[in-house]
Amino acid sequence: MAVLKEGSRPPWVGLAAAVWVQIAAGSAYTFPLYSPALKSVLGFSQQQLTIIGVANDIGENVGILPGIACNKFPPWVILLVGLCLSFFGYGVLWLAVSQTVLSLPYWVLWLALVVATNSSAWMGTAVLVTNMRNFPLSRGTVAGILKGYIGLSAAVFTEIFAMVLNDSASDLLLFLTLGIPIICLAMMYFIRACTPASGEDSSEHVHFLFTQAASLLLAIYLLTTTILKTILSLNSSISYILVGVMVILLMSPLVIPLKMTIFPSRHKRPGKLDGSSNDLTEQEISFSQTTSLLTPISSEADLGSFREGEDISEVDMLLAVGEGAVKKKRKPRRGEDFKFREAIIKADFWLLWFAYFFGVGSGVTVLNNLAQIGVALGVNDTTILLSLFSFCNFLGRLGAGVVSEHFVRSKTIPRTFWMMITQILMIITFLLYASALSGTLYAATALLGICFGVQFGVMIPTSSELFGLKHFGIIFNFMQLGNPLGALLFSGLLAGYVYDTEAGKQQGSHCLGPNCFRLTFLVLAGVSAFGSFLSMILTIRIRPVYQMLYAAGSFRLAQASDH
């Protein structure tokens, strides 16, 4: 695979393009917008609808195949698969909801939604793995930005749904069928692997701050315009202008590579000779040293092919060991590059998996049923609820990257500490939902959105720091299986059953009142309590690793850049 030379513009162009792909990859969050149409047009019960919602979560989060493929194919191939899945999956759903094709079987629609939302896994893996490798010294920040934008995608699609598509579910599905492939085709050229810088660049911090500020401005704008659309009667011209401003804000990360083009950096990196033909080789060596922050800086690090190569036969390795060419290969330690089969047998791996499972599984249950929760508690227009959740979900994802990056560098506090704190807050949130006190619905939704977003912003960089970047794609995608499994258990089986049981008591297809979800919320509070306990254990276990990573990190990286 061709790798671009270390440079100022290519990684930032790729990050700007990744923003658009992440918005497209957030199509799975549009399920609450068209789920009422699925229920009414196709005559589903609430439990049938929640099982369809589980298909939504399974497709979005089962990314084992793209995780494997990202180590074998360039990013454009991964994106090409994603756009094909999106086209065919959402196309079938559009045919059903628009009643272009009548009487499609339930299982066909279930599989179509799995296929449609699985495109998110392919697109998200392509841009996340590529950008994490392009910026290995800023993993938490990059993960927070990219996961923040995918969290904002629900608000972006809600804006388009309300202001351009006039709340038409069939038009939304047609937009997803055609729009997502167009975005991927336009952006796939720019998302490519670049050899990362050999050391920290002072301007990089400013550029990340600008990108974070631009995303925050977009989030505030989306929330404000959604509220305006709800309380005011806006004509089509004003609506189109507001959507146009949103598109301009989505393009704002391109300011960074444009600025670099107009005002190129004049300084030269130390240790570089002009015209040297070995530039790329030196940069590739630097990359191998920075992908794993704990790789020992010693003579062992120079045994490249024997340490890193996976195609060397056991006979060759034994002969090399016998002749003294290399030492016997040892198992990786925390912070080094693990293969998937090496990571999956570690206690840290499963502690992180279950802590994430309990955090996102409980949160996605509310997200999948947010429209029904709002109606049950007396809110007829649930658009603001969805936009509020999306905005706060974005804040949680972005904030998790920023805050955890600060404390991990300044205090060597593991990122999972923030997972523990937010899961404790989720206990309070679910109790607020269960109480159904007047005025608490919006506050609980906002708080849950933040806590839900933090789970993503913490899990991704933590998995790369504990198990390395080399096989990061498959490792973090396996972690993400906690989302659909949680949705199946807590949303499909628990929430759907409780809702339909209560609706049966009221002798109707719709359930009204706090009892529709009260038992579900109490169970989710207990789930969050157990998740916070697991997060606390993991934080205590890995604290020494972070003290090694970041207390000595600058020294190790400085040595790496001198080689």
UniProtKB/TrEMBL annotation:
Annotated ranges, domain NFD4 C-terminal: 345-546
Membrane topology: Multi-pass membrane protein
Residue intervals passing through the bilayer: 12-34, 76-97, 109-130, 142-166, 172-194, 206-232, 238-258, 349-367, 373-396, 417-435, 441-460, 472-499, 519-540
Cell compartment(s), UniProt: Membrane
One Pfam assignment: Nodulin-like
Domain Nodulin-like: 11-258
Alphabetically ordered keywords of this record: Membrane, Transmembrane, Transmembrane helix
Main location: membrane
InterPro entries: MFS_trans_sf, NFD4_C, Nodulin-like
Gene3D superfamilies: MFS general substrate transporter like domains
Domain of life: Eukaryota
Family affiliation: Belongs to the major facilitator superfamily. Phosphate:H(+) symporter (TC 2.A.1.9) family.
Protein name (record): Protein NUCLEAR FUSION DEFECTIVE 4
